[in-house]
Write a structure and sequence with these properties.
The complex is a heterodimer. Chain A is 74% helix and 1% strand. Chain A is an all-alpha fold. Chain B has 16 helices and 15 strands. In chain B, helix 5 links the parallel strand 1 and strand 2. In chain B, helix 1 packs across helix 2, helix 2 crosses helix 4 and helix 15 runs antiparallel to helix 16. In chain B, strands 1, 2, 3, 4, 6, 7, 8, 9 and 12 form a nine-stranded mixed β-sheet that branches. The chains are: A mainly alpha, B alpha/beta. At the A-B interface, strand 1 and helix 4 of A face helix 6 and strand 7 of B.
Amino acid sequence: MVTVLAAAAPVLLAGIVVLLVIDALPAIQRFGFTFFTDSTWNPVSEHFGAAAYIYGTVVTSILALVIATPIGVGCALFLVEYAPMRLRNPVSFLIELLAAIPSIIYGLWGLFILAPVMRGAVEPFFKATIGPLPGIGALFGGPVIGRDLFVAGVILSIMILPTVTAVSREILRAVPTTQREGMLALGATRWETVQKAVLPYARSGIAGAAILGLARALGETMAVTMVVGNSSTKITPSLLTPGYTMASAIANQFTEADKAIYFSAIVAVALVLLVVAIVMNVLARLLVWSVARGPSATAVRAG
Amino acid sequence: MTPVQRLSSALVAIACLTVACGPGAQPSATSGTGPATSAAAKPTTAPAAAPSSAPAAAGSPSAVAKPASSPAAASSPVAAASPSAAPAAAVPSITGPAPNEAKALTGAGSTFAAPLYQKWFSTYAGITGVQINYQGIGSGGGIQGIQNQTLDFGATDAPLSDDQLAAAKGGPIFHIPTALGAIVPTYNIPEVGNAKLKFTGETIAGIYLGTIEKWNDPKLVADNPSLANVDQDIVTVHRSDGSGTTFGFTDYLSSVSPDWQQKVGKGTSVDWPNGLGGSGNPGVAGEVQQNPYSLGYVELIYALQNNLGYGMVKNQAGTFIDPSLDSVTAAAANSSSNVPPDLRFSIVNAPGANSYPISTATWILAYKNMTDQSKALAMARMLWWATHEAQQYNKDLQYATVPDPLTKISETFIKQINVGGTPVFPEP
């Protein structure tokens, strides 16, 4: 009985993958590999290429990761190493509350509060300071609208922050105290202990935490849809252009895909999203387990 | 009931038939189920039916029901019986509940008509007790729902193509036009406020194609001197979901701009060269409201309700026309010559001095051959009400009413809705 229940989860997952593959097959057969490289999504001429969606998803997720990882690891370090005992639980609780907020609330907050602030203050600031620089300035080209990949990335970073912080905190707690005591005995300051003993030991675990956050960011739909601009235009290097992510494209276009090939193309995008999310999750779990299990060869080498 | 009672009730029924339907009697109007139910009902209602059916020669079943009216079944057999007395020349009216009709229907689709349908269906529930659940998910969703028979009816501003009709799982689909409305270019320019700007087909196409990028572009300033000092990029807003409003808008742009026709074309979902996407008419209105210097296209009522500025558009005759009830009605009147028999017509870019060029009709989609008798009856009655009594509510919400010649064609469609070959309306 218990075995049957336990077997239900993998069976369900396999079933979902099989179903998606069956429905996506017409699109994959028709467009082949160009489906992933072509950015034209034209329902009128039945020409579908998901590159713009994949690009949007990747960019917003990486931006979220870049913002959330330092902040999350910093929070976790504070909670584990520096915070007074009586502060640890309340602060952890508050950070975990961020994960409890429904994503649609993030979307509304982003739409009404964050986006105007970004449009009015933050984006013009970046455009004025980094925009004129050669090369990297292309990241902030184009008009400032307030509905773009940048705002979506910022909202995603807030949403994945609790995940990254919680997992990092567990990882940092799993670092044996002997490592810290050894460093302190050798005369290291607290920051040197953290920098040279704790963090290197926890490196792979923190990478796992980041990838778990990334996995959440990849699939986030509602909050992103409301601020990303929903525009399947050409891929440009600028973060300030309205874009589209795979999840929000599926959500917006699923109900009205009246032609079979249109529907199949959307399912193909869903399949890509699912595969990427599964791979990320598996990778993250392996990394996290390798630290939580205990002292490992990687830790010895890193020390 | 004794055989004598049955015989006497049958005789009274025949008497009513001959008296009430003398001029244009259609005895064949009695449906297959008629004789059994009417015979069964006669003893209780014959006295009430006899005097009232004679003056009500117009044959309104509910008018006959009223003297015997009570929520109980007593009135409904009369309503069931007397429509068999209604000749084809008379127009039934829906003013009360009917027996055997489903008490709930589900429909979804157009956000263009959603404000109107919400008003209609809440009124209809009060009249007949039939709860109609309508969701504005975009015409594309309505079309898909009716094709897959997940909805009882769909609502769309984009008529189905032949391919889409062929893909419908339940057979032929009727397009019943319910209202006409205007798609207006709406904008949020702080310097201009609610003042009316003037647009032409070329300028709108240019803005959405990206060739006109700023509000103070010479082509816009030529018609709107007040824009000369607005040196801001235009943020265009379009629909991110499958939309009949998009269909009407791109239909117009395709007919006035060969560039647009070639690069983008028309459809419920197109490859927009630039701009933000909003979900549904409310989404586009919201995006325009929140983003300064933006331009979007919505149904007139959304611009009015959200207090957004909306502009005039130049029509084929060369006049800048303010979108309104009257200009949409004029567009429909001037397009009446090219309405196909299945009512899948387009009224964009209509000729005539007063026609608003971006006008469109909105339709309810219903299957001709249905399987559930009670639902089919409820559908047919709702469609009849929508094309007749409900039209009085259009004006307050700035939708034009459907012209009479088109309503006549809709009536023939509604009367063809059948279950197993037997038409369900007028009720047996």
